[in-house]
Amino acid sequence: MKATPEHNAKIAKMTFASVYPHYVNKVERKGRTKEELHEVITWLTGFDDTEIQRVIDENLTFVEFFEQAKLHENAHLITGVICGYRIEELENELTQKVRYLDKLVDEIAKGRKMEKILRK
User: Where are the domains of the chain?
Assistant: First the structure.
């Protein structure tokens, strides 16, 4: 499936704070922890726990979130399908980065080992 300009614009306007509780609920429902969620967010973005909380408190959009992030050098190794989109084929850089994060959260929820999730 190809992401439309409307889809990309919708993602750009979303805030990390609006999605974060859904990430937490998803991983905890599957028996994983908030700490594991933070580990993958830190791996992908370089944000530590304090910075993650700041991003939430400041209600940053995903544009602002990823502008401030230092994307991990192995982020390009995150591939596959999430929400009907093949990550490696997404043309919009922001949409691709958001889907990277979605894919990592999905992998936690599916019980994948952290070494595999963190592309070690």
Answer: 5-117
Superfamily of segment(s) 5-117:
uncharacterized protein sp1917 domain (1.10.8.290)
Question: What is the arithmetic mean of pLDDT over 29-42?
Answer: 98
* pLDDT tens profile 1-33: 778 889 899 999 999 999 999 999 999 999 999
| Residue 58 DSSP class | T
Site of tokens 């192995």: 74
DSSP 73-108: TTGGG--SEETTEEGGG--SHHHHHHHHHHHHHHHH
Which tokens belong to 13?
């306007």
Calpha distance 44→101 (Å, rounded): 7
